[in-house]
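pasting Cysteine protease for the record, 487 residues
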Amino acid sequence: MVDATTSWTGAERTYYPRIRRMWQQIWDVENVNVDHEHEIVCLGQRYDPQVAVEGDDVDSQTVASDGLSLLWPREFLEDVGSRVWLTYRKNFPLIPKAKNGPSTVSISGVFRGSGIEFNGFTTDVGWGCMIRTAQSLLANALMLLRFGRGWRRDNVEDEKDVIRLFADEPDAPLSLHNFVRHGEAHCGKRPGEWFGPSAAASSIKALCEAHCDNMRVYISAGSDVYENEMRHVAVDAAGRFRPTLILLGIRLGIDAVNPVYWDTLREFLAFPQAVGIAGGRPSSSHYFFGYQHDSLFYLDPHQWQPALRLDGLDSEALESVHTTRIRSIHLSEMDPSMLVGFLVRDEGDWQAWKQGIMEGTTRKIVTVSKEPPQLNARSSVSLGSDDEESGFIDVAHDTTRHEEEEEEEEEEGDVAEGEEELPVMVNSSSAILGGSIGDEYTPVIVDDNASSIDEPVNLSFHDASSSSYTPQPDDEWEMMKRTFSKD
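structre below
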């Protein structure tokens, strides 16, 4: 079947998901199980899409007539219901407004009953969705570390010590208040401003270093994972490998994720070490935890609830951080800006994760190297920041390099027959302009639907391995100009 979304314009890709979300808020129908052929995957666990029915004499026609075929497998629902779901909250202790910061009063907040407060924020409605999805990713990593992947909610007291870390109070170590405090101090994010994946990852790392003795955090250099840096984080002074949360902050396109990366996104969620994906732009960040064929399952943070209080973590409050409501979007609707998380518990887990990355389709996006390259005069090109709604464009590395290691070298600037030029993948410090290092990389320019950039851009050059600027050789400068010029 042909996917009509592959022929959409940039505007259609931008506005269709927004219209769809508005419609869902007005008419939020239950998502039913209509795909009985493709397996269901939830953070590395796989489930048969068929609903188990007791009795040997029940045929498929009876199942369909009883409506059971529209139900989700019980084991899958129990798994989803055990994931932590953190959402907008209201009436929490005041987060003071910054000088010249965003307004504390919003129409959406007033309509949702959060009241009017001019001195600061008592709700994160309208601006806190990326923080909430980052909290969800972190909370599920901590739950998996403490209870294991097979844990299911049969005793709410089990999880109280983890959930209290995320209470909506300044004294809670991993609270919204402390995410905002770190964002303001270190990421240039004033209270009330939307976080991007970069600010979210920075907050997770800083707060875990301060408050989580049982887990460390490694943030990749874009899509590049360097083993020496990872080990510096994960291995303690006694040489013991400590559980480590790996965070990949990546952007896989301009308006949408190109279909060439869909298999890779699915594979991310199928890893045994997967803890989910947090991502999106303002008003559209979700926490993705699984998939079925071309649909991604997610937890939506845009539902507001009363604040979680440290002195009120009763069974009702704990129930509010879980749901069995199944929500999904098509892969074509996913925003390309995201934070991908993996939890590696020990040395064996780390080696298995590395092997999985290097052998699967994930190598289209993620590169695992022993140490950062010495780029010298080579430069990465980037525009803007991954936190900006407009995003930024980088030169993507060529994913066919693994298959061509034993082939003859092509002339510089030529593309081998059958070689694929991939859409832009952002925030990779391995992206090399105008050449290659050891024939590792090939410059590729892409947008979703064209082979050139339509508008002039201001290029800022920097050496990824140095804070100083280095002039480009003339031949590389000419190649850069040809690459970025109009057709």
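The CA atoms of residues 83 and 115 lie 30 Å apart.
The mean pLDDT is 76.
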